[in-house]
Amino acid sequence: MKKISTRSMTDVEFQVGDKVTFNPYGKAWECEVTDIETHPRTGRTMYSLRGEAITQTSGLSIEQSAWFEEYPALFRISGQEAILLEREGLDIPIASYNDGKFEEAEVQIRKIAQVIDKPLQSFVLGALEEAKGNSKQAKEHFDESLAMGCSAAKDRMDNVQCNVLLAFGTSPGVINTLLICDKDQVRDAVQHANKANLTLVGGFPSSYPGVHFDNESIYSPLSDRYRFGRFVTDINEGVLFYDLEPKRSASVSLG
Fold first, then answer.
1. Which of 7, 11, 140, 210 has the fewest CB atoms within 10 Å distance of its CB?
2. 211 closest CA partner among 231, 227, 189, 241
3. Rounded distance between C-alpha atoms, residue 25 and residue 72, angstroms
4. 148-155: long-range contacts (C-beta < 8 A, 24 or more apart)?
5. Is residue 15 scored above 70 in pLDDT?
6. Residues pairing with 38 in the sheet
7. Rounded to 5 degrees, what are φ and ψ at 173?
């Protein structure tokens, strides 16, 4: 696991005029640094970028940064395969899946996958089964894809991940933080979330002993997204922390 420190991210890695690659969602955008500021809450160095994208970001979304972190997603496809799937219109349902619309998005993904090239079709179905926590089926699809000439399937077949998506909120009806972590990190993640006054309100898939999900309805596209290392670090350093809301109580008359 890469060690991430919000304090270390206060260092300036790039200068105005530097060419960098902005990659927040598995799709690369070539940009130039136009301004450098300090985030008022976290103290992180923030870079204003202009080019194929116009944005402001920390090093977490810049490929050349020591702190670059791939976008946390259950359904993972990047590089050339992502470009090919975008042409087929699969990028939209994949994004919906990663936002939490699992059943609806899966139907669309399988429908579109039926009409694309066979090697890429098997690659997509492998990524889908991996996202659902079905390691054996995922490896079988990646193996099929590799046999038909998709070289990217080799690494995926050898490194199938068993991830879970956890949804946290400041109250049962709120989701403001989504975490992608290995199934073996679930219990530790929940303990750290409790430190930050976050409550586990949902997750997918839900087959993890000792951890109860109130529901699997976790659609929340505007939530902050984390991987385990940065999630733990932000909580330990006080960046991701929510004050307890004052509890309402009956008024008491004194005299």
1. 210
2. 189
3. 8
4. 148/118, 148/119, 148/122, 149/119, 150/81, 150/119, 150/120, 150/122, 150/123, 152/79, 152/80, 152/81, 152/123, 153/119, 153/122, 153/123, 153/126
5. yes
6. 45
7. -95, 10
Question: Residue written as tokens 């006054």?
Answer: 197
The amino acid occupying position 197 is N
How many residues belong to the chain? 255
Tell me how far apart the alpha carbons of residues 110 and 202 are, in angstroms, rounded to a whole number: 25
The DSSP element (H or E) to which 35 belongs, if any, is strand 29-38
Instruction: Please say whether the beta carbons of 18 and 2 come within 8 A.
Output: no
Instruction: Compute the average pLDDT of residues 66-81.
Output: 86
Q: State yes or no: pLDDT of 78 exceeds 70.
A: yes
Q: Residue 2: pLDDT above 80?
A: no
Residue 30 tokens read as 């070539």
